[in-house]
Amino acid sequence: MNNNISTVDFIGSDGIYIEKDNNTSINKKSGIVTGILLIALGLLTFFDPLALGLGLAYVITAGLGIMGISMIIAYVRAPEELRNGWGLINGVIFTLFSGVTLWSSFTGVTGTVTMISTLSMFAAILSVISGISQMVISSAVRKSGLKGSGWILASGIINILIGIFIMIQPVAGWFTISAVWGIYMFFIGLAVTAESLSGRRGCNAD
């Protein structure tokens, strides 16, 4: 039996299987690099929140364009009898929205503000819809006699209030969301880095 054969017997914090050998020699590099990148992005929240907010806006807007193009390609490549017209319409809308929004954002400050405001409104609508859904679920849970309906209701109310705040102040709301994500990334980065430096990233407790 070869003692040098590696076995896949634990999962990293990113959900990816990681191999270790019998000497538990773990490659720390990927974890440390990931942690440092997350910390750097998180620090933008404290030192340059504007850059973080704008960066997220550009990434999301570009992502919508890529998704739209992929939907159009999927429609074209699909057999004629299986083509979904709504998929094509959504693809065109996403692509046009992304292209026009990105183009206008590079033409001046007004275009950038419009891009952020539009994304904020999408986030606000999703937040309100999520809150309403949680309130409906809370009512169903309460009627069924199960515990936890109060927490679900509170979460729904918070989501609705957040959505309303973003609708009233879309630009400020967007940068608030960006700041929360930045703080989250900072602490996750610290955790991943510490875990990697310990040489136990993704290992079982035993």
Q: Give the SSE order as H and E letters.
A: EEHHHHHH
Global mean pLDDT: 78
Helix content: over 70%
Largest sheet: 2 strands, antiparallel
Range of strand content: under 5%
Adjacency order of strands in the biggest sheet: 1-2
Question: What report would you give on this structure?
Answer:
The chain is mostly helical and 206 residues long. It has one domain (28-115, 123-197). The chain contains six helices and two strands. β1 and β2 form a beta hairpin. The radius of gyration is 23 Å and the shape is globular. Mean pLDDT is 78; it is low at 1-27.
List keywords for this structure.
4% strand; globular; 2 strands; mainly alpha
What does this entry show, briefly?
The chain is mainly alpha-helical and 206 residues long. 74% of the residues lie in helices and 4% in strands.
Ordered list of secondary-structure elements with their pairings:
Elements: E1 7-11, E2 17-20, H1 29-47, H2 49-77, H3 85-105, H4 109-144, H5 149-168, H6 170-197
Helix pairs in contact: 1-2, 1-6, 2-3, 2-4, 2-6, 3-4, 4-5, 4-6, 5-6
